[in-house]
Specification:
16 strands; 13 helices; 405 residues; alpha/beta; 10-stranded mixed beta sheet; single chain
Length: 405
């Protein structure tokens, strides 16, 4: 167990009641509980909101009390960002002064808290762990890029690179982040973002894959936002339905699952007639057992990401012996091997995706083979194992004692 005082800095809010109990989003609560397993003096600097305001998707964080929270004001608009700029900086400074190990990342609206910590780096004595799990600020890899996106990309890239170079330990979800900010020879811990538990990983792939009769069943689970390539998927379905218009029976069944600004667009699209392609829109189900049960009803997962993040759903699919048909982005290329654990297509290329969707009907054995390979690849990649590996890395990299001082 890590004994040194350890503080995690994040924009993700926690909810606390009068008794000191703390609540968080379901997945965030799960992640925080694992931090507590190996960090003795854990604190968190983040927005703290009344428990009465917590949404239905929250749960109590076992082992964490409100006394361990250094509260920040929540930024919910540019006026509040300006109003909270100094008060939040003062709180971050207070938290840094009272800790030994600082843990922060490269995400958070309107800017990561790491930028505050960078200002404190020369004046205060602490060990700094930088964790890069996403890149919300990056401009799209394809299509039109606005001036605002160009400026945001340049600013955040420079600032996060400065934070990474000032930090003592680095944890990234993909090697591409290491190369971008530090170079290919840097010593970093690469820990893909895996949230599955051991009991949710299949023991073996299904014994009887489809033999070619009947339509293939695939699922497109995503937040319904442009960055997830929603329009590319819809265009691919239209192309495929045109190509196979003469087919008498359904060739493909594709379910679109998610919520977000484009949900109604997808719902109305699914209600239309697409000939040999049967399209259905479904609302999302809770992550965990219901979600994995849903995945088992398909033969492949479709992803069409337009930005370089590493989507969590890749490992979720692998855990259910499902290959992934995905856009060729840096985050996906580090997890999906073309022809072995899935098929890759160029970003925003609806025609290439349509061709791969067509292959799902004609090559069921290939899907089954890739699914089995994917299941082997995820065997030791559980959420708890990710934290165990992180503890070992931090002990080594920061020179932490193995017994209390």
């Amino acid at each position: 167990m890590i004994q040194a005082p350890y503080t995690l800095f994040t924009r993700i809010p926690l909810y606390a009641d009068a008794t000191g109990e703390v609540y968080a989003d379901d997945l965030w609560a799960k992640d925080l509980a694992l931090h507590l397993d190996y960090i003795a003096e854990f604190r968190i600097c983040c927005p703290r909101l009344p428990a009465a305001e917590r949404p239905n998707t929250t749960t109590m964080v076992t082992g964490l009390s409100s006394a361990q929270i250094i509260p920040l004001s929540r930024d919910q608009g540019w006026l509040s960002v300006l109003r909270n700029l100094w008060p939040n900086f003062a709180q971050v400074r207070r938290a840094v002064k009272a800790t030994r190990i600082v843990h922060s990342g490269g995400a958070g609206w309107a800017f990561p808290l790491s930028y505050y910590i960078l200002l404190l780096r020369r004046r205060l004595d602490f060990q700094w762990v930088m964790v890069i799990e996403s890149s919300f600020w990056m401009k799209p890899t394809q299509g039109r890029v606005s001036l605002r996106q160009h400026l945001a990309h340049a600013f955040h890239h420079r600032m996060i690179r400065a934070c990474m170079r000032a930090a003592d330990a680095h944890i990234v979800t993909q090697s591409w982040y290491r190369d971008l900010f530090l170079g290919p020879d840097a010593q970093v811990h690469i820990a893909p973002a895996v949230w599955i538990d051991e009991q949710d990983i299949l023991d073996a792939p299904p014994e009887a894959p489809r033999q070619g009769a009947g339509p293939a069943r695939v699922i497109f689970p995503a937040r319904m936002v442009p960055e997830k390539g929603v329009e590319t998927v819809l265009q691919a379905i239209e192309l495929l339905s045109t190509q196979l218009a003469s087919a008498a029976d359904p060739v493909l069944e594709i379910d679109i699952v998610g919520a977000g600004p484009l949900a109604e667009r997808c719902r109305s699209f699914a209600a239309q007639d697409h000939g040999p392609v049967a399209v259905r829109f479904r609302d999302p189900v809770p992550y965990g057992a219901p979600f994995f049960k849903m995945l088992r009803g398909y033969e492949a997962v479709v992803l069409a990401n337009r930005q370089p993040e590493q989507p969590r759903i890749v490992y979720d699919a692998f855990a259910q012996a499902l290959p992934v048909i995905a856009s060729r982005t840096p985050g996906i290329e580090t997890t999906v091997t073309d022809g072995e654990t899935g098929w890759l297509f160029p970003v925003d290329d609806a025609e290439a995706l349509a061709n791969l969707l067509s292959r799902t009907q004609t090559e069921p054995q290939a899907l089954a083979r890739m699914g089995a390979t994917a299941l082997d690849a995820v065997a030791a990649r559980t959420h708890s194992r990710m934290h165990q590996d992180r503890e070992v890395f931090l002990r080594t990299r920061l020179g932490l004692a193995t017994t209390p001082p």
